[in-house]
Design goal:
Elements (H helix, E strand, L loop, with lengths): L1 E5 L14 H12 L5 E6 L11 H4 L11 E5 L4 H11 L5 E5 L2 E3 L3 H6 L5 E5 L6 E6 L18 H4 L2 H11 L4 E2 L8 E2 L4 E2 L4 E3 L3 H14 L7 H6 L1 H13 L4 H20 L3 H24 L5 H13 L1 H13 L6 H27 L8 H7 L5 H17 L6 H27 L11
Parallel strand pairs: 1-2, 1-4, 2-3, 6-8
Antiparallel strand pairs: 4-7, 5-11, 6-7, 9-10
Helix pairs in contact: 9-11, 10-11, 10-12, 10-13, 11-16, 13-14, 14-17, 16-17
Length: 440
């Protein structure tokens, strides 16, 4: 597979989440896992050569892009002529064609590339209309209906890829990708997401696309804190962190420190400081994932650290809560309940990978009822605010001990048992479901 990017009309000042538009395209290609033989980038110019100090080349010096097979040309010729010359140089190859100002759904790339013939996908409205065009080997991209020069205004010239695709379709030499040819389910986000393509040619378009990308990276089913409380704060944090090129693993590192430090504070009765660190961790747990996906900076290490932390720490928090409530008495009812909570939590967590292995989908998003229940099942972000409120009431009330917090803690353990029963039942119910198929 070869790629042609028409970057002749890209505005370098438009940088969604701190990343240049062509850079975003290249990261999407890198993450698509397509076998790329060449990525040909066209910039404006009279001479065919593009020197190493060209601003576009200088802007793509990010280390993750170093291994991509990028080649450069400078030309003011019509897009159809440039693609025709590129295809003539590699007549046996298929080509993906974009305008450089296009924001593409990386999921589209391998699915579009796998189709036969000349196929395109167009998305967005008005000035945000963008296209991915897939040309089969031996295709003739020239078409009289396509723009003949690159000297038009940036807005019309930037639409060349779209105009070329539509002209080829009108001539019966290309077709739009059908919706049933796209698998839009995202396992990690537990949601179905329609494919998207946008062109970013103005600051207003950049802002709209940033908002769309932000919300499209939220999980389809999650707890009420992540869904309703944290998004405004996450939005405020993600944008400057992305502009400053802060790697999400640094955010995860702060989150890990906060997670671990909260436990001994609770055990010693430092409830306020412990809760502050707990909510900081909960917020940063949303920030690092969004930052990674929006800036294409996720990594295997980051995934292990982030998801490993999510899975491992909650039972130790519950043990810390029990120690703080009981004064460290191992014979107390809350300590015994915390031990039960530990094993109930482990058993509940084991249901998720078993369910996914059998169905190919998340246990929290298999059916609409599972998505709704995920909002308030026994998880850290659900249990933490209830327990915080109970501790606060006891701290303000006259009298010794923590009666309300103890009652709420025992209720949390009971709720964990109920959630385990529900997830075991769902796992048994769909154990023999057809893997990867949409639920009936």
């Amino acid at each position: 597979m070869r790629v042609f990017i028409d970057a002749r009309h890209v505005d370098p000042g438009l940088r969604p989440f701190g990343m240049g538009l062509v850079e975003r395209l290249l990261h999407a290609l890198r993450r698509s896992a397509l076998p790329l033989e060449e990525i040909r980038i066209a910039v404006a110019g009279e001479e065919p050569g593009v020197p190493p100090d060209h601003p576009m080349r200088q802007s793509l010096r990010a280390r993750p892009l170093a291994g991509l097979p990028i080649s450069w040309i400078a030309s003011n010729d019509a897009l159809g002529a440039l693609i025709g010359a590129a295809m003539a140089s590699a007549p046996e190859a298929s080509w993906l064609v974009f305008a450089g100002e296009t924001i593409v759904d990386a999921r589209l790339l391998p699915q579009l590339a796998a189709l036969e013939g000349n196929v395109f996908f167009t998305g967005g409205e008005g000035e945000e209309r963008g296209t991915i065009l897939r040309l089969a080997p031996g295709s003739d991209p020239s078409c009289s209906a396509a723009p003949s020069t690159a000297s038009a205004s940036a807005s019309s010239s930037g639409a060349d890829a779209t105009a070329l695709a539509e002209a080829l379709a009108a001539a019966g030499r290309a077709r739009p990708m059908r919706r049933d040819e796209f698998d839009g389910y995202i396992v990690n986000l537990r949601r179905e997401l329609e494919p998207y393509v946008f062109a970013v040619r103005s600051d207003a378009a950049r802002k709209r696309v940033e908002r769309f990308l932000f919300w499209s990276n939220y999980k389809g089913s999650t707890d009420f804190m992540t869904k309703y409380v944290w998004p405004p704060l996450v939005w405020l944090l993600v944008r400057p962190l992305a502009r400053w090129r802060v790697h999400p693993n640094w955010v995860t590192g702060v989150s890990i420190l906060a997670t671990v430090a909260a436990i001994p504070l609770w055990m010693e009765g430092w409830w306020g400081t412990g809760f502050f660190l707990a909510y900081l961790m909960s917020l940063l747990d949303s920030v690092d994932g969004k930052l990674a996906r929006l800036t294409f900076s996720y990594s295997k290490l980051g995934d292990v650290l982030d998801h490993g932390l999510d899975i491992v720490h909650p039972p130790f928090w519950y043990l810390g809560w029990a120690a703080g409530l009981s004064g460290g008495d191992p014979g107390s009812i809350v300590h015994e309940a915390a031990i039960w909570m530990f094993w109930l939590y482990v058993a509940d967590r084991l249901c998720a990978p078993i369910f996914r292995a059998r169905t190919g989908r998340s246990i929290h998003g298999y059916l609409p009822i599972d998505e709704k229940i995920r909002t308030f099942i026994s998880r850290r972000n659900v249990n933490l605010p209830f327990f915080t409120a109970a501790v606060a009431i006891d701290a303000l009330a006259p009298g010794p001990g923590w009666p309300i917090a103890t009652a709420v803690f025992l209720a949390i353990v009971a709720w964990q048992a109920v959630c385990l029963v529900y997830h075991v039942a769902r796992t048994i119910q769909f154990f023999n479901a057809v893997k990867g198929s949409a639920p009936a």
